[in-house]
Design brief:
- By secondary structure, the chain is α+β, with helices and mostly antiparallel strands.
- Helices cover about 30% and strands about 35% of the residues.
- It is built from 4 helices and 7 strands.
- The protein has a 7-stranded antiparallel beta sheet with strand order 1-7-6-5-4-3-2.
- The radius of gyration is 15 Å and the shape is globular.
- The mean pLDDT is about 90.
Length: about 160
């Protein structure tokens, strides 16, 4: 893993299997706007929000209680000059037990500071992992974007637009 890739750590009281199951429930912590299989090796799914963000992802590694890896097959951002950022990158969840806690090391391998979306995407991942996924693991309820309103993504898009004005 390149040290400039976006990464974040999460510690929870629940077991690695509980963390693994929650990660595989991306509709419960990332977005209800996901179509397709999410939780099995070679599953492919699509996330989209209006005409602003679209990505097609494949599950390329899935080891219960230990690891989940997604490969971004296709991606489009309306708000970046390079519309294809993320293509070929990997979203990695490494899960391990540390004494009395479960550690989740999240890395978006290939999401690097040179990307236009690095800051906005890093903020989004931080929210989804450290807040929504944490809550899904701990309480059974995350805060995913809903089908009716992707308010968090709109908020980040507005912030990004204002920075580039």
């Amino acid at each position: 893993m390149n040290t400039s890739d976006f990464t974040t750590l999460l510690f929870v009281e629940q077991t690695p299997d509980e963390a693994f199951n929650a990660i595989n429930n991306a509709r419960g912590w990332w977005s209800e706007n996901i179509e397709g299989g999410i939780d099995r090796l070679n599953d492919e799914f699509i996330y989209s929000y209006k005409d602003i963000h679209y990505c097609k992802i494949k599950v390329i590694e899935s080891v219960p209680g230990q690891k989940v890896v997604w490969l971004v097959l296709d991606n489009y951002f309306k708000f970046t000059e390079d519309k294809s950022e993320w293509i070929g990158t990997k979203v990695v969840f490494d899960i391990s037990r540390k004494v009395d806690q479960t550690e989740i090391r999240f890395a978006h391998q290939g999401l690097v500071p040179q990307y236009e979306c690095y800051e906005i995407c890093g903020e989004a991942w931080t929210n989804y992992i450290n807040d929504s996924l944490r809550n899904l693991i701990a309480t059974g309820t995350g805060q995913p974007n809903t089908k009716e309103d992707d308010a968090f993504e709109v908020q980040l898009l507005n912030k990004f637009s204002n920075q580039n004005s």
